[in-house]
TrEMBL record:
It comes from the Eukaryota. CDD domains: GH43_XynB-like. Residues 323-502 form the Beta-xylosidase C-terminal Concanavalin A-like domain. Belongs to the glycosyl hydrolase 43 family. Keywords: Glycosidase, Hydrolase. This is Beta-xylosidase C-terminal Concanavalin A-like domain-containing protein. Pfam families: GH43_C2, Glyco_hydro_43.
Length: 505
């Protein structure tokens, strides 16, 4: 079996894997986007198919308080910390036949600190895309994970308390009710790196191994491990920690961490981790899912190989397929889905009064993850003959960072805009076009280096309106680029009609 990375390209952080029979299932974080927690399936760990989303009904939970905070760092940069659905863990229980996902919805109440809402969802058939409503449990932390002991007892471990010096806590729980069946116990504080988080417990050769992430989720990210002869500890740290990191290297794939380990049918060990393709100050794609080979001899400690990919690597698996049309569409937070109609190649958006530059009100936007470093996206917008509106094509990360090309009916102009509040970037340009035209074709060409925004008022005549260096949208953050269409208007029931949306995702 050959590792071809990233296995899930684009916006795919915090991977977790479980195996059911001969099929592997992977889940990722989604933060402020709906539907949440995508589920991918693979039989060979190379080719992955999107089979559903565990949070696929707005009635399951609300993402309203998942705004993005600007957090200045000591080095003068600004981290963008988005709320919503943090690192999930997926586990299958062969005894009950149920598959569980345990997760945190991080709320950002106004004028208050983070409020984590931890929950468990389950399904009897992972292929059905039918997941339960959340069962909430009391835990003041994030990144929960599930373990079962030999006696059938189920345990939850997670990263407890506010950062940066969090601790790893463990308690017995009833997964059907969320009720704690034991006192919460601190079982490890890590090796001294900041933000000990993302814990997973594995039992092997009669010992319990606790795998965690430390050092923060960026350039100092690392994986460390400890073990004990009792699930409740005490845990002894491995003397050769960390077992995975790109810190202090010039690797193209950096920030590797937040790992989950698993075995294939032949007994080989693997790890899935997040990583970022970084070239200088450019890492526009954000955190993606990578596969690493593992080694775990009897009685020994687990080891993980380095993610070895260079900037000239030809990626075989750039496109992730879906089992049915529509699974890969994404909306922002608690969108009004009645205002989004997708019929074949036509998208109709009832324009929202609120723009994507804010988070408090729903916005009319639908898009798909950018999966490839190089490609194009385009759409044809029917020009409105009445009212005042703005509608077009956008690369969106959060309310602080986006770049777009759109038609402003009030000015009868095609406009280009790039915004990154964390870097104090804000540019805009426009060109008048004839309001006699029936439509305008909007285009984005993207590479590792730059984003080029173009339009065609008449077929075959392409004009460039704006160019963005991808470094301008690269930040320490949690999310990745989503390419889609949006519509904004002060007028009630103003509709934007898009046709032939094309995006190589």
């Amino acid at each position: 079996m050959t590792t071809i990375n990233p296995i899930i390209p684009g916006f795919a952080p915090d991977p977790s894997v479980t195996r059911i029979g001969d099929t592997f299932f992977l889940v990722n974080s989604t933060f402020h986007l709906f539907p949440g927690l995508p589920i991918y399936a693979s039989k060979d760990l190379v080719n992955w198919t999107l089979i559903g989303n565990a949070i696929n009904r707005q009635s399951q939970l609300s993402l309203h308080l998942s705004d993005t905070k600007l957090e200045p760092q000591e080095d003068g940069t600004v981290m963008l910390a988005t709320g919503g659905l943090f690192a999930p863990t997926i586990r299958h229980d062969p005894q009950s036949g149920k598959t569980y996902i345990i997760n945190t919805n991080v709320l950002h109440p106004e004028n208050a600190g983070d409020k984590p809402e931890n929950f468990i969802i389950e399904t009897d058939d992972i292929w059905s895309d039918n997941w339960s409503d959340p069962v909430y449990f009391d835990f003041d932390g994030i990144d929960p994970s599930i373990s079962w002991d030999d006696d059938g007892k189920s345990y939850i471990c997670g990263s407890h308390g506010p950062g940066p010096m969090t601790t790893i806590s463990l308690f017995e729980a009833d997964l059907s009710t969320g009720k704690k069946l034991s006192e919460e116990k601190t079982v490890w504080k890590g090796t001294g790196g900041i933000y000990p988080e993302g814990p997973h417990i594995y039992k092997k050769d009669g010992l319990y191994y606790l795998l965690i992430s430390e050092g923060g989720t960026f350039k100092d990210h690392m994986i460390t491990v400890a073990r004990s002869d009792n699930i409740l500890g005490p845990y002894e740290a491995y003397e050769n920690n960390p077992i995975l990191t790109a810190a202090g290297t010039e690797n193209y794939v950096h920030c590797t961490g937040h790992c989950d380990m698993f075995q294939d049918n032949e007994g080989h060990w693997w790890g899935v981790c997040l990583g970022m393709r970084m070239r200088g100050s450019r890492f526009h794609m954000g955190r993606e899912s990578f596969l690493v080979t593992g080694h775990w001899e009897q009685g020994d400690w687990p080891r993980l190989d380095t993610v070895e990919v260079n900037s000239s690597h030809k990626f075989k698996n750039d496109i992730v397929k879906a089992t049915k049309t529509g699974l890969d569409w994404l909306y922002i937070r608690d969108a009004n889905l009645q205002h989004h109609k997708i019929e074949g190649s036509t998208i109709r958006l009832t324009a929202s009064k609120a723009d994507i530059s804010q988070w408090k009100e729903p916005v009319s936007f639908v898009g798909k993850r950018q999966r490839k470093l190089e490609g194009t996206a385009s759409v044809t917008l029917t020009l409105p003959k009445t009212g005042s509106s703005r509608a077009g094509l956008v690369i969106y990360k959060d309310e602080h960072r986006y770049t777009r090309i759109y038609y402003d009916s009030g000015n009868k102009a095609v406009c280009f805009e790039v915004v990154n509040n964390a870097k104090k970037i804000g540019r805009r340009d426009q060109e008048k076009i004839s309001d006699e035209s029936p439509d305008v074709r909007l285009l984005i060409e993207y590479t590792d280096d730059k984003l080029t925004f173009q339009y065609e008022e008449e077929e075959g005549v392409t004009k460039t309106l704006g160019v963005v260096d991808t470094a301008e949208l690269s930040n320490a953050d949690f999310v990745g680029p989503v390419i889609g269409v949006f519509a904004v208007s002060d007028d009630e029931n103003n509709e934007a009609v898009f046709t032939d949306f094309e995006h190589e995702n």
